[in-house]
Amino acid sequence: MSAATTQHIYLDKQHPAVWRALNGLGLKVREAADAAGVDRKTIELLHVRTSQLNGCAYCLDMHVRDAVEAGESPQRLAVLSAWRETALFTEKERAALALAECITELQDHTAREREEGYARQHLTADEFSVVSWLVITMNAFNRVSITSHHPVRRDR
How many Å apart are CA 134 and CA 139, to the nearest integer? Predict the structure, then answer.
């Protein structure tokens, strides 16, 4: 293999207009989340959980920091991947996390209906829609970072 075929292509740098459009979508989704009353801690929990499921180190690094900045506790972040096994999350957060997993993993029809039904019991229509958009958008960002091999920089 030549150096040209092993060098990573940063999709965001290769097509910056497309990257700006994705960021614009992210901003619109954040505005919708604010309007629907979804708080920043919940938004960051969804970003972290989606990034955990996708294995996106770059996004995990960024959104764990953002979650801490938003006031999220290290304990809840530490157990987030096992959120179903703890009582540390509210019913609304659990519903949002269940929906996030359902969307990210694209479960079978029966599992999707069960998880969406659970989410609908605890989320308003606006919250359900916003959580869905937050997760859909985060999945797109994860895929850009994973495909681009965006590096996680060491703390200084």
Answer: 9
Question: Quick check: is 66 in a domain?
Answer: yes
The model carries a pTM of: 0.94
Which parts of the chain are beta strand (E)? none
CATH classification of the domain holding 32: 1.20.1290.10
Q: List the structure tokens of 123.
A: 């989320």
CB–CB of 40/30 below 8 Å? no
Q: Is 3 domain-assigned?
A: no
* Residues 130, 142: Cα–Cα separation, whole Å: 18
| Spatial contact of 138 and 46, defined as CB atoms under 8 Å apart | yes
Residue 118 lies in a domain: yes
- Helix (H) and strand (E) counts for the chain? 9, 0
pLDDT tens-digit series, residues 64-111: 999 999 999 999 999 999 999 999 999 999 999 999 999 999 999 999
